[in-house]
Design a protein that fits this description.
By secondary structure, this protein is mainly α. The chain folds into 3 domains: 352 residues, no CATH class; 251 residues, no CATH class; 25 residues. The protein has 27 helices and 2 strands. The chain has a two-stranded antiparallel ribbon with strand order 1-2. The chain is globular and about 90 Å long.
């Protein structure tokens, strides 16, 4: 058993490479393949046309249904492997020295390349197959002229597979062509988004409470892919006889302790969302949900047993390999049960819903008065989890900084916490609840997420805090959080992203490009679109204010005069946007709002209020920024004056030194000229 420099005990399997466990590997691969093909095939045969009949949909035949199910298993399994391989390569590697940068030769990267290629191929095949399956047509129908485009437009799922194909292909090319840590980071982001694409347009899109279900899936699906995908990659590494360093396993354990609550919590929220209506426990969906929960509990117990056994040196390498294979088999079963669930209409499909529940997931009965907005809360799970996680990580870093005897301004901590409080209030209070049905309320949320919350967050100095809280690994140490953060800060892509012109276009163009096109109306029809829009507001606002008034030094810092000009340039665009909304006779998203049909709705008045909010909400924060910039400028000048006074008092005034240096250069030049004349 080994210990790190802080005295913590590390998991300690043998570091020496072992012979490949060919018997275990063969049995494992054969069993996994049989399981992956057999379970969906059995489910499709047993279900027959029942799932299609329940939705009043034509049965496309067993071949189309079976092909769709098997391709879905291949795509999701490959997505798990891709995400897991990237997580292992980026964050779990504990290779010291210069070799930590040679990611292109890693076993994990090679697994990621192969799985990303399979993922992209299966997603490409699923576009026509699921187009036929979702519309109740046979594969032969796709051969008819014009059939494929028509069928693709008839369902959300083919479009999701198009997105998954594009992003999976991008991940493959990044893995195939790149070798730097920062090259694989966008590959992981693309993979996470690709994993979510078919999920957010699936069963979580329908039924009362689908806002909770969608948020739970958005959180749980990528986390489970990272957790179980990484464990599968480590299992393959063990079966191939490759060594796993203690540091790698330690990092995996820490990741698992963080991921398990998110996976279990999201699964329980999804269970509560799906099991509604009369006698939901009598349905096949209930049985499958209980099976998935049981598998998660079993995996958690197996994980705890393995960790405890390894820490106590009671498990050999051979036993560790067997336990890892068992865990991978259970996680694959978890995935397969999820795929089978997509073939069965869940109970929430058949619960009568209002038009508001169709779009938002909940009913809205009262007009948005100030009292209602203040008291009518509905938790936004996604932003609540993000906010709580961000505050916990910040406070943990703060505790570590202070434990080292370093000071940290209280104002920065208060600013960071208040920023996330604004995010939670804007998304989970009555403001967030009514933002989908009332344009004026929506614009208030927009201003809060785009102008107020980022202004507070950038004053928190989170990057500076994390750099101080983390310890550099050194030349011969394994890369850790400090190196990862430093690599991102030196990343060329980040320098391009922080181009002032680009940020200005994103910040201002978002208003005009979103609201004066059909993009806003289309996004409001889906919960995931609404969440993506809010996240966009927050990120773009953070980029804008971090360039102007942030505590953290941006990759492309602007002088104070440039920052002032940056702010002043944005103010007319805000004012013009607000004036357009207030005076325009064309209503924003009129068809959507009339379709929702709120009885109290006055679309013209709501848009007028929204324009006023955009005008005032955009101008006031910018005026605050101008005042803050003036204060920062004055403080910087004061610090510079103090520095010069201190330098002068020490007898090392810069101006005098430069003047004396100039005199010495002139004297030397004259002496050189005189010597030449004497010669």
């Amino acid at each position: 058993m080994s210990s790190d420099k802080n005295g913590r005990t590390s998991i300690h399997p043998s570091l020496k490479p072992a012979r490949p466990h060919r018997g275990i590997l063969a049995v494992f691969v054969a069993g996994v393949s049989l399981q992956a093909a057999g379970v969906p095939a059995l489910a499709v045969v047993l279900l027959g046309s029942s799932g299609y009949d329940a939705l009043a949909r034509s049965y496309p035949g067993i071949f189309t249904s079976l092909l769709s199910a098997i391709l879905r298993v291949v795509a999701e399994g490959a997505s798990w492997l891709t995400v897991g391989a990237l997580v292992c390569a980026l964050f779990l590697r504990a290779v010291p020295g210069q070799s930590r940068r040679l990611l292109d030769q890693d076993f994990e990267v090679r697994v990621g390349r192969a799985s990303a290629l399979v993922w992209a191929g299966s997603a490409l095949l699923l576009i026509p197959v699921d187009a036929a399956d979702a519309n109740g047509q046979t594969i032969e129908t796709l051969l008819l002229p014009g059939a494929l485009p028509y069928l693709v437009q008839g369902s959300y799922l083919p479009g999701a597979w198009i997105v998954a194909f594009i992003l999976a292909s991008a991940s493959y090319f990044l893995l195939a062509l790149g070798s730097r840590w920062t090259t694989f980071l966008p590959a992981l982001l693309a993979s996470m988004l690709a994993v979510l694409a078919p999920v957010v347009v699936g069963q979580v899109l329908v039924g009362p409470g689908h806002d909770f279900g969608s948020d739970a899936a958005i959180i749980g699906v990528p986390v489970s892919a990272a957790l179980f995908g990484a464990s599968t990659v480590l299992t393959l590494r063990l079966c191939s006889g490759r060594a796993i360093r203690p540091g790698t396993l330690d990092r995996f354990v820490r990741m698992a302790w963080f991921a398990w609550p998110l996976v279990l919590g999201s699964e329980m929220v999804l269970a509560a969302f799906k099991l509604v209506g009369p006698d939901p426990w009598q349905t096949a969906t209930a049985t499958l949900i209980l099976t998935r929960l049981g598998l998660l509990v079993g995996l958690a117990c197996l994980f705890a047993f393995t960790v405890i056994g390894e820490r106590r040196r009671r498990i050999s390498r051979h036993q560790l390999t067997l336990l890892s294979c068992v865990g991978t088999t259970l996680s694959l079963t978890y995935l397969l049960v999820g795929v089978v669930m997509t073939r069965i209409p869940p109970p929430q499909y058949f619960v009568p819903t209002t038009i508001a529940e169709v779009f938002f997931g909940f009913t809205i009965d009262e007009a948005p008065t100030l009292t209602v907005l203040a008291t009518s809360w509905r938790p936004n799970i996604l932003f609540a989890v993000i906010a709580v996680s961000a505050v916990i990580l910040y406070l943990a870093a703060l505790r570590r900084v202070r434990s080292r005897g370093h000071a940290w301004p209280l104002g920065r901590t208060v600013s960071w916490v208040l920023g996330w409080v604004v995010v939670v209030v804007a998304t989970s209070s009555g403001l967030g609840k009514y933002s989908g049905i009332d344009f004026g309320v929506h614009m208030t949320v927009h201003m809060a997420l785009n102008m107020l919350a980022p202004l507070l967050l950038v004053m928190g100095g989170v990057v500076t805090l994390f750099l101080r809280a983390t310890t550099p690994a050194g030349t011969h140490g394994a890369a850790g959080p400090h190196e990862w953060l430093a690599a991102v800060l030196k990343w060329r892509v980040l320098r391009v992203l922080y181009n002032p012109l680009l940020i200005f276009v994103l910040f201002i163009g978002s208003y005009y490009g979103l609201y004066f096109t059909g993009l806003f109306e289309e996004a409001m029809r889906f919960h995931w679109g609404h969440q993506a829009m809010n996240l966009h507001f927050l990120i773009v606002g953070y980029l804008y204010y971090s360039l102007i008034i942030g505590v953290d030094r941006p990759p492309r810092p602007l002088p104070h005069l440039g920052r002032l000009g940056f702010v002043l340039a944005a103010m007319p665009f805000h004012a013009f946007f607000g004036v357009i909304l207030m005076t325009s006779t064309t209503l924003i998203a009129e068809d959507f709002y009339r379709q929702v049909g709120a009885p109290w709705a006055d679309l013209s008045a709501s848009q007028y209020v929204g324009g006023g909010v955009a005008w005032a909400g955009g101008e006031l924060p910018l005026l605050i920024v101008i005042i803050a910039l003036g204060i920062q400028w004055a403080r910087q000048d004061q610090r510079e004056a103090v520095r010069k006074d201190r330098h002068f008092d020490s007898g090392l005034d810069d101006d005098f030194e430069e003047y004396n240096a100039m005199l010495r250069r002139l004297a030397n030049r004259r002496a050189t000229a005189d010597s030449r004349e004497d010669t």
